[in-house]
Batch of 3 targets.
Target 1
Amino acid sequence: MTGSTVINLKNVDVFQQKHLVLSNVNLNIDKGEFVFLIGQTGSGKSSLLKIIYGDLHIGNGEGQIAGFDLKKLGNKEVPFLRRKLGIVFQDFQLLTDRTVEKNLEFVLKATGWTDKNLITERIKDVLEKVGLRSKIKKMPHELSGGEQQRVVIARALLNNPEIILADEPTGNLDPDTSEEIVMLLKQISQSGTAVLMATHDYHIIRTFPSRIIKCESGIVHEDAQIV
Ligand SMILES: Nc1ncnc2c1ncn2[C@@H]1O[C@H](COP(=O)(O)OP(=O)(O)OP(=O)(O)O)[C@@H](O)[C@H]1O
C-alpha cells in the first residue's frame, strides 16, 4: 500500500448473509484513479461497493478505505467514513420537494456545516464544477435527467470526498448525456478524487478507455479487459 492509496482490500471475503459472494478480494485504487467496475447481474458489484462504504462488514481479510480501517469500523464510525465518500447511486435521488440549493444545503447541514456564508459558497462551488450554477433555484422536476444526475454528482462533491462511488450513474440516460456524465466524472478524477463506477454499458467503456475491475464467478479481477 502506498501513500496515495485510497482503497485497499487484502484477501477480503465478501458475504451476503451466509452466502460467500466474492472470495479473496485484493484491490488497490489510488488517489485520482478512474476505474470501471463490471460484471454480470448478481456477480457481486453492489456487494463490493457495500464493503467499501461500510454497509457490509468484512469477515476475513483487511481493508483500508480513505484512511479508515474496515476491521475497526463500528456503526459510530460509518458516517465519518461516508463523509470521505461521494455516493452516486440510482436509488439515492434528489429530494423532490425542494430546490437544487435546498437539496445541497440539506446535506451540508446534516454533515455538520453551520456557517451560512460557507454553506452558500460551497453550494455555488460544486454547482460551478458540474456546470449548473444557473440552476440553483430550480426544482428537480424542472431539470432534465442529465441535469439531475449532475446535481447528484454536485451533492457527492460537497464534502470534498477522496472517492466517488457511482453505481450505474448513466443507467437512465440517453447515450450523449451518458457520455457527458462520464466525461464529468473523469474530469473530477483528474482533480484528485478517485472514481469507481459500476456499469453495464460497454459503449461507455470503449469510449473512455480506463482500468477495468471485473466481478466474475466469485472472484474480482483487478485489471480486466472487455472483448
Ligand atoms: N441482502 C442480501 N441478502 C442475501 N443475498 C444477497 C443480498 N443482496 C445480494 N445478495 C446476493 O449476492 C449476490 C451478489 O449480488 P450483488 O447485488 O452484489 O450483484 P451485482 O453484481 O451488483 O448485480 P446487479 O448488476 O444486478 O446490480 C447475488 O447472488 C445476490 O442474490
Target 2
Amino acid sequence: MTSVRSGLHELNLASRRAEEAAARRFQAVQWLHSVVGQLGIPTQPSEKEFISCLRNGMILCNAINKIHPGAVPKVVENYSHLQSFNREYQLPQAYQYFENVRNFLVALEHLRLPGFEASDLEKDNLEFGSVTKVVDCILGLKAYHESKMTSSGNGFYKHIKTPTFQLSATKVQPLSASKTSRHLDMSSVRDKNDCIDDESDKLKVIAKLFADHIFNSKENIVENLMSLEHGSENSRVNFEKIISRFPELQSVFKNFLSEGTLKPSDLKSMPLEELPVREEDQSSRSLLKKTNSNHRRLLKSQEKELAVLKTLFINTKQDFKEFQVHLQRDLMELGNQMQEMSSAAQGYYKVVEENRKLYNMVQDLKGNIRVFCRVRPIFNREMKGVIDYIGKDGSLFVVDPSKLQKDARKTFQFNQVFGPTSTQDDVYKETQPLIRSVMDGYNVCIFAYGQTGSGKTYTMSGPPGRSASEMGINYLALSDLFLICDKRRDMMTYEIYVQMVEIYNEQVRDLLAENFTCTKYPFIVPNIRTCSSEDDGLSLPDATMHSVNCTRDVLKLMEAGEVNRAVSSTSMNNRSSRSHSIFMVHVRGKDTSGGTLRSCLHLVDLAGSERVDKSEVTGDRLKEAQYINKSLSCLGDVISALAQKNSHIPYRNSKLTLLLQDSLGGQAKTLMFAHLSPEEDSFGETISTLKFAQRVSTVELGAARAHKETREVMHLKEQVENLKKALGAEEPKNVSYSGAKEIKSPFSRPVATTERTPPRLRRLSIENCSNTKVTNHLEDRKGVKSPLPSRRAKRMSLEGPKPCKTEEQAKGDLTMEVNQLKNPRSPVSSYQTRAVKVDGRTSIPQFQLLQTPDKGSSRNEVQIISVDSRTNGKSSHIRKSLRTIGKLINGSEKRKENMPTDPRSPLGVSTNFSGIKSPHTSNAKTVRRQSLTGVMPSGPERSRRSSIGGNTNPIEINGVNGARNAKTPPPMRSPTKIGKQWA
Ligand SMILES: Nc1ncnc2c1ncn2[C@@H]1O[C@H](COP(=O)(O)OP(=O)(O)OP(=O)(O)O)[C@@H](O)[C@H]1O
C-alpha cells in the first residue's frame, strides 16, 4: 500500500510539474504574441506546436529585434535569395532556419541572456526537456524587456534564474559564435570571409552536412554513431547510407581518410564528441560534453523515475488483480445470496397467493362481505398525510398526527388496499371476478362508503368529464358484462337492463325517468320490495327499466342519471353528492338447453358522511346532510347487528338499508369500498371509516347462491304447479281447503294467515313493532287496510304457539299450510312449517311435512305434504306424483349444486362448495358457522340466514310473495314496455 501511495505521490508531482511547464509555455506564447503579433498557433499550444512555430527562427529574431532593435541585423524571411546557394550546395531548406536561429542565439549572447541549443528546436528532442529550455529563454527575454521598460532603457538587467532555468543556464557561456554549439560552429563555416584553414573548413562542412541531414531526416545520428562503438552491423550500414547520400560529404570524408587525419577505425571506436578537433573547438567540445553529461544525468534520473513508476505500476496491477479477484468472489457470493433471496421471495409470494386464495375461499364459504380500501391522492401538497404504509397483502398503517411515535400507529387489514397511485383499471381488475359472477346467476352488490370528498363517485363513476382511462366501475362493469355476453353467445343469450335511482332525503327517485325535472321531483318511486330476488328480481319495480345492448347505451344512461342526481358544492367537495345513488343492472340469461338464470348487480355510490361544522352547510344542504348521516348511521346499525349476529336486523330504519337488504342479508356477494381522504385534518373521519370497514369485513352472510334453473327443473316445477291445481280442484269436498282457492284473493288470505300464523322469531315481531310506519305502508301496498293482522301477528309471536286448537283452528292451520306450500321458497316459511310440526299442531290430519333435511333451503325445493285417509284415490295418485316430482327436483337441484360451476367464472371455485358446505337448514348453518368461526350459535333454533335474509314480516311473506305466486307476472307498474317484458 505504501508503494501505491508513494507512486501516487510521484504521479501527482509529475502532473504538477507538467502543469507548471504548460503555464510557463503559455506565458511565453502570450508574450511573443504581444511583441510580434499573430504566431499562427493556439494561445495554449502543445509543446510540438510551440516548437514548430519557432523552428525557423523568424519569430525569435523579430522578437529580439523589437526589444533590442538591430540585435539580429538580417532576418531571413524569404528563402528565394538562397535559391542559388541551395542549388550550389544542394542544401535542404532546414539549413536556412539556422541562419535565423544562430543569429538569435548570438544576439542573446550579446545581451547576456540565457539561450538554448539549436538542436532543442528539433522534433526528436522534445521529450528530453528541450522545450523547457526554449521557454526559459523566451521568458528570460520577456523579463529583460520588462526590466528595460521599467528602468526606462538604462540597459541594466541581471537575469535571475528560476529553478527550471538551471539546466539551460549551465550552457550559457560567453562564447563566440563559433563556440556556441556544434551547429553554430558549423554555420559559421559559411562565412566565406572568415580566415579559416582548409581542414577546419572541411570538418565544419562535414559537420554541417551531418547536422542538416539529421535535422531533415530526423535520424538520430548520435545514437547511430554511438552504436558504431559496439560494432553494430546495422549502425555501420546506416552510417554508410548517410554518407552515400551526400556525394560532397563522401569526397570530404575520403580526403580526410587519405590525409590520415581521421581513420575510419578511429571513427568507429570514438564517439562523436571525442573526434579529434582543433584547439579552438576544445571549449565547445567541453561544453558539448557537459551538456551530454547533463542529459545523461537527466536520463538517469528519469530512468530511475521510470523504474519507480514501473514497479509502482506492477504493484498497482497486482493490487488491482487481487482486488478484481476479491470483487469477483464477492459478486459471486452476492449473486448466490440474491438467488436464494429471490427463490425465497418467490416461495413467499406463492404462499401469500395461496393464503389469499384460501382466505377468499373461506370468505366465500362464510359469505363475508369483502372490503377494499382506496386512498385518494393528497391535493394540497402542503398538507401532511396520515397513511404510513400500504401492504400488498391488504394491510394498512395509519399514523395519528396528534400522538407520539409509539402509540401513533394503527393497523388495519382488508382484502385489498389501493394507494393514491392506483388507477381505475387496477381497482377494476380486483373487482372483475365478483362482477363477472353476475353472469353466472349471482346477485352482487358493490357499495362505496367514505367521508365526503374521499373519492366514492370517482371510483364508481369516474371524475366529471372523464377520459376512457378514468371510467369508473359502473361503466367498466357493464363493458365487461357485454364482453362476456359476446363470448358466450353460442351457449347463452343474455338480456341486460338497467335502472338508476337515488335516495334523496329518504325518498327514492328515479334518475332515468323520462321528463325528469330536478325541481319538481315527480318521479318518486313509491315501492321498495324486499326479498324480491325470491320472485322477479326487482326490488324497485316502479322505477324505469332500460334495455342496454352496448356500452354506448350505458354511457348515455349514466350521463342522464348523473345530470339528474342531486349534487351541490360544499366546502369539502365542489360536487358533493347529496344522495345515495344506486345503479342496478339486471341480467337474464337463457341457455341453449332452455335453462335460465337471473341476477342483479347493485352498484351503490353512497353520499358521503360529513361533519356539518366542517362542511359548513346550512339550510337545504344541512337538511340533506342530516338525512345522509341518519341513513348512514342506519347502515352502521345494520352492519353492527349483522356482525354481532343479532336476531334483529333493523333494515327498515331507512330506505337505504331496506333497498340493500337483499345484498346485505340475502344470498348475494357483497363488496364494500372504504374510501379515505389521507389528509391530516381528516384523521378522525379516516379512523371511523376504517373502523366501520373493519366491522363490515366481519359480517358473514353465508355462501352466495346462483339463481339458475335447468330446463328439467323448470319443467318439473311447471308440472308441480299443474298438479297442485289439479289437486285443488279434486279435493274441495274432502278437505276444507278453501285456502287453495282463496289464496288468489289478497283480501281473504291475510285473515286466515293471521289467525294461524305459527310462532315466529321474536326479533321479527320486535322489528315490526319498532317500525309500524313501514309495516303500515306495506300493508297499504297489499291493500290490507286493517292494522289487526300485524297486531295479531305480534301478539302471537310474543306469546308463542298455542298448544291446543279447535276444529276451526285446525282448518285455519290447513289454510296456513297451503299458503306455505304456495310459497315454498322462503326460508322463514319453511322454518315456520317445521315449527308448526314441532309444537304439535301437526295433529291436523290432512297435511304432514316430509322429513327432508334440506327443507326450505332451496328455492326450487318442493314441500311434499302427506295425504290423509280422507283423500280419494285420484288425489292420492296426484300426491304420489307430486312427491316423485319433488324428489326429482330436489335430486336435480342437489346434483346441480354439486356440479362445478362454469369454469369461466373466476369465483366459480367457491360455488363448488355451495352444495356441500352451504346447508340451508338453520341447524346445519349454525353448525357450519360454528365450525368456520368457532363462535357458538346464539340460540338453538335460530337461523341467521332466516334472520338476515328471510322475510321478516309474516304478512309480507304470505301476502306479498304469496300474492306474487298467485299472479305469476310480477307487479310491474309499467313505465316502459321493458318492465312488462321483464315481468
Ligand atoms: N383516486 C383519485 N385520483 C384522483 N382524483 C381523485 C381520486 N379520488 C377522488 N378524486 C377527486 O377528488 C374529488 C372528490 O372526489 P369525489 O367527488 O369522488 O368524492 P366523494 O367521496 O364522491 O364525495 P361526496 O361524498 O361529497 O360526493 C374529485 O375532484 C375527484 O376527481
Target 3
Amino acid sequence: MNARDRIPQLAARLVELRAAYYQGTPLVADAEYDAVEDELRGLIEANPELAPVPNPLEQVGGPAVLHAPVRHSRPMLSLEKATKPEQVAAFFDRFPGQSVVVMPKLDGLSLALIYEHGRLVRAVTRGDGTTGEDVTAMVRAMADGIPERLTADGRAEVRGEAVMLRSTFAAYNTAHPDKPLINPRNAAAGTLRAKDPATVAGRRLRFFAFDLATDTDSADTELDRALHTLGFTAADMRHCADAEAAQQAITEIEQQRGDLDYDLDGAVLRLADRDAFAAAGTRSSSPRGAIAFKFAAEEKTTVLADVVWDVGKTGKIAPVAWLEPVFVGGTTVTRATLANQEVIRARDIKIGDTVLVRRAGDVIPFVAGVLDASKRTGQEQEIVPPSVCPSCGQALIEQGNSRELFCTNVSCPAQTVRRLIHWASRAAADIDAIGGVWIERLAEVGILQQPSDFYHLTKEKLLEFDRIGEVSATRMIESIDASRQVGLRRALIGLAIPLASDGTAARLCRGGFRSLEEVAEAGVEGLVAVEDIGPKVAASLIEHLTRLRPELERLRAAGVSLDVRDEDLPPVVAAGAPLAGKTVVITGAINDPRTGEKVPRPVFQRLCEKAGATAASSVSANTDFLITGAGVGDAKLTKAAKLGVEVVDQNEIWQKLIDAQVV
Ligand SMILES: NC(=O)c1ccc[n+]([C@@H]2O[C@H](COP(=O)([O-])OP(=O)(O)OC[C@H]3O[C@@H](n4cnc5c(N)ncnc54)[C@H](O)[C@@H]3O)[C@@H](O)[C@H]2O)c1
Ligand SMILES: [Zn+2]
C-alpha cells in the first residue's frame, strides 16, 4: 500500500487505540501500539507533505471526555523517544555543561498536584495534555506519598507518576481471583477512575515525583533535592556528567528492572536543573529538556494455541498455555501459566484468543487476559478443565477458592516423574548429570520410581541404553554418588512435601532437629514449637513423612545422609559479636569488598547471623538496620525512612565483620 493511503489509515488506528487505552480498555499491548506510531512517524518523515491534519503524533494522550475538567497551567506532554546510544549522546551535545539525571520511566499514570499556600488543593490527570480530570478525592483516598501540606508559599505544582506497586497488584489478584486486574498500569488508572474508594479497596497507589514548578524561587533549583525537601519520594534520579555515564545508568536501571517493585518501560533523561529544563522549552508534544529511552516490552499479545493440563510434583493439575512464539521480556516465550480454572473463568480466556502475555522480572510468563474480544471469530474454544488426571486417570478433587485441581494418587506416573526431577534438582540432591528427559525415560522403563532408586543405578544398567555412552554413564554415577551428602535440609526440600517450603526445611535445622527421622517422630506439637512453623505445615510434614518412612529407610540403607549439615546449624555467634541483638534486613546485590565478588544473599545473611544479628525478610518497626547492597529498590528505602529504620551500607557491615574476624 502506498504512503498516501497508509498514512491516514495508521493515523486513524492511533486515534482509535489511544481512545481505548485512555478509557482503561486497551485493545493491544503497548509494543503493538508503539509499532503503529513508529510506522506512521517513519512514513511522515519520508513524506512530510502527506502529514495528516491534525497529526496524532503531535498530540498528547487521549480525548478529553472528562467529568471534572481542569485546564493545566502548562501542558502535560509526552517524551521524545530514544532507542540508540547516539541519541543519548546527541541529547548531551544539545546541552553542553548541563548536569543530567537519569531515572526510571515509571509505568503508571501521570498526575499534577497543585498546592496553594502549602495545602493540596487539586490532583489532576494528564487528559489530552491541555485539560485533565480532577481526581483529588480519589487521590486523597487511594494514593500514598502525596503530602497534604507542604512548607511552600504561593503556588507549587508537583508532577509525577502514580503507580500500583507490583506487590500490591500481586496481593490484590491473589485475594480477588474472581476479578483480577490485568496489569499494574491499567489497575492504577482504573483505581483513580472509580467513583467510590470502597469499590477499589486493596488497590493503593504510590506517587513518585519527577517535576516541580513554583511561583516563588524559594525551592532548590536542583530537581531531586527540591522534591526531597518538600517531602516527596522522587523517581530514583542518578546524576550523570556525560553520555557515557548516562548510558551506564540506563543499563543499570534496565538490569534492576526485575527487582524493582514497580513496572517501568524505559529510562528518562532530563536536565537536572529546574531552570535549565524550563528554559529549554517544548516542541509540539514533548519538552526539549528530556528524552525517554525505551526498554524491551514486558507485555505482548499472541495467539493462545492450546491449553495443556500439567501434573505437578504434589499432584496439582495446572493449566499451561501453549502460545504462538512471542518475544517478550527479553526471550521468546511459547509457554505461559494460566494459574487455575478460576483465573481462566474470571479472565474469560478461550483457545484461539489473542491474549496478553506478561513476563516481568523473574515471574513465570503469565497469560494476563484477552484485550480485544472483538477480534474473536467464533472459532474459539472453551477451555475445559479435566475431570480425571491426564496421567493416571484418577478422578480429580478441587481445593480452595480458586478451585485448584489435584490428583491424589500417590503412584500417579506423571507425579512420580516430577518428584524424581525435583529430587535431582539443584535446591535438593543436585544430581546435575541426569537431565529431566533421562529421568522420565528411566521412570518409564520402571528403573526409577522413587528417590532411593537413583542410588541403585549402576554404570552397567545405564550403558544398556543406546544413547548413554561410557563418558556420560560415568558422569551420571559420579553425580549420584556426590548427592549422597544431601543432608536433612535439602533432602526435605527434595521430598516435595505439600506446604513445606525451602524456608521450612531451614527452620527445622536451626530449630535443633538433627535428622529427617527426628522430624518425622516429633509429632505436630514438636514441630509447631519451632519458630515460624504453623499447625498446617506441621500436620502436612507429619502426614507425609509418616507415609515416606519406608523410603527414608531405603535412602539410609543406600548410604544417603539425612542428617543435618554443619552449614544448616544455627550459627555460632562469634565472641564480641558486632551485631549482637540487632535485627537486620538485607537488600540489594551484595559484593565482598575485598574481592569485589558477588556474594549470594543467604551467605551474607549467615555472616551477619554469626555476628549476632537476627535476619528478617521485610522491614518493620522492629528492624534495627536495613543493610543495602547495590541496586536497592525505592520501596524498601521509603519504608525504612517511614519507620525510622537506620539504613546502613553493606561496606560498613563488611568492615565490622572483618574487624571481628567473622570473615
Ligand atoms: N496499548 C495501547 O493501545 C496504547 C495506546 C496509547 C499509548 N500507549 C502507551 O502509552 C505510552 C505513550 O504515552 P505517552 O506518549 O503519552 O507517554 P510517553 O511514553 O511519551 O511518556 C510520557 C509520560 O511518561 C511518564 N513518566 C514516567 N516516568 C517519568 C519520569 N521519570 N519522567 C517523566 N515522565 C515520566 C509520564 O506520565 C509522562 O506523561 C507508551 O508506552 C505507549 O505504548 C499504549
Ligand atoms: Zn494422576
